[in-house]
Structure formats: structure tokens, C-alpha cells
Amino acid sequence: MTALGRLAGLVLAVGVLSTPAAAQVADLRSTTQFRVCADPANAPMSSRDGSGFENKLAEFFGQQLGLPVTYFWFPSGMGFVQRTLREGNCDVVIGYAQGDELVQNTNHYYTSVYGIVTRRDGPLAKVDRLSDPALKEVGIGVVAGTPPATHLARAGLAPNMRGADLFVDRRVEDPMGDLLEDVRSGATGAAVLWGPLAGPRVKDDPDLQFTPLLHEEASPRLFFRITMGVRPEEQEWKRELNSLIRRNQDGINQILHDAGVPLVDDYGKEVLP
Questions:
Q1: Angle 190-167-117 from CA coordinates, rounded to 5°
Q2: What is the CA radius of gyration of the chain?
Q3: For residue range 240-268, what is the model confidence (pLDDT) as tens digits?
Q4: What is the CATH topology of the domain spanning 5-110+225-266?
Q5: What CATH number belongs to 113-212?
């Protein structure tokens, strides 16, 4: 996640986990605030101005818990988990890919998918799979090291790929925006991007559209479960959040749909509003 940001970035985010300080955080959770760990410049997921869909989810969760929401801001990337959760500065990461060992995952509260961004009025508007021959004629933006890059290479499209870096300080760089602008301007014909990052950006765009990649059968898969991340020691807190997710799934889905996040079920089938 929460992008593509955290989906791949947080998998590599911590350099030091087995420290005395890390072992002494079992009782650090606040009972008077819903303390969220977040990137201040990871739009459309999280933003210091509160406009991200993860900000809206945090407010929703805080309301259900009866707690005010506060933030500890730190850029996604190396050291994120250590400086946030592990040092006790906050108690939950709202968006975190399931299976990451750096945190304890709650139950997943949504599943999303990579997709292809094209011009609404362009010749690629109906492309919905990476094996489409039309893609052989155009440049394709992709974030380096993400699962779609493997699919593109397998389809013989490696020479067409125009890569963007995953590990950047989004306070000063915007690789996602650059990839989308290349499609808009015609510098590339398409971009293959993580849905929660791309979908909200093009939801109301008059020129661009996002099409989920629902037909890719080869590995690696292109849909992933997203959880909340908490400290490994805090089992009770995880159970409380799991209950929160279970009781409020419809409200969670509504916030995500409204934001333009493409949702799929656990088998990769699209979940419509």
C-alpha cells in the first residue's frame, strides 16, 4: 500500500527490527486517541491536508471507536515502520499489504488490483489485458519492480517500458503524476499502475481512464489484500480492529468506491458500487 508506495515499498521499509526498544512496545497503544502512522505526501492515499482516502478511513475508524484521530507523519520507505510503530509514535498504519512480516496484519479490509491507464478517446481505450497486440506499438509507463513489469516483459514488451522509481520522497517528487501526464500528453500510450494510486487520480479526469486488469492468469497475481498494520505484540488491538472491520465493511467499501479505488473480491473479480 497504504500504494504503489506501500504495497512494495513497506516490504523493505525497516532496517532494524530486533532491538531492545522494539521489544518493549507491547503496551504503547493510546486509549485516548486513534494514533495513525502516515506519509504526509502519499496522495491520493494519505496527505497532511486530510484529503486522502486513508485519511477519510482513519476518521471513519476513529468515529466508530469514539476516539479523536491524530497523526505521526513520516515518509514511506526505509525506516518507516521503525520510526512510527516500533518507536511507539503511533499505533496503526491504515493501508498495509497482507503478508508483510514487518508488522502484524489485521484482517484485510479491501482487495484491489493493478490496471491500465489510457486516454478515454484513444486507440487503446478498450485494452483490458497486457497481451493485447495494440500495446506492442506504444510506450508503456510502469513503476520499476512492481508485478506488472513481469507480465509486460513476458509479453515481449520490455523494450516499450518506461520505468519510474518506487523509492522517492513524494514531498518533492511525483512519479505517479509524471506517468499519468505522459499518457495525457501522448508521450506514452498507457501506464500500468496500482489501482488505489491511479484510480482516484483519474476518477473524474476528462482525458484519462483506469481499466482494472482482471484477466491476467499467469503469476505474479495483480490483485492484493490490504490490511491495517499494528505492532506484533498487540494481539488485543488487532482483534479490536478486526471486529471494527467486520462490523463496518459496507461503510469502508463506500469510502473506497467514492474515492475511485477499484475493488475486487478475494478471487480477483470486480466488486461494483
A1: 15
A2: 19
A3: 999 999 999 999 999 999 999 999 999 99
A4: D-Maltodextrin-Binding Protein; domain 2 (3.40.190)
A5: 3.40.190.10
Full-model pTM: 0.88
Per-residue pLDDT tens digits for 49-70: 999 999 999 999 999 999 999 9
Residue 117: CB atoms within 10 A of its CB come to: 26
Amino acid at 249: Q
Q: State how far the Cα of 97 lies from the Cα of 131, in Å rounded to an integer.
A: 27
Q: What is the pLDDT of residues 209-248, one digit of tens each?
A: 999 999 998 999 999 999 999 999 999 999 999 999 999 9
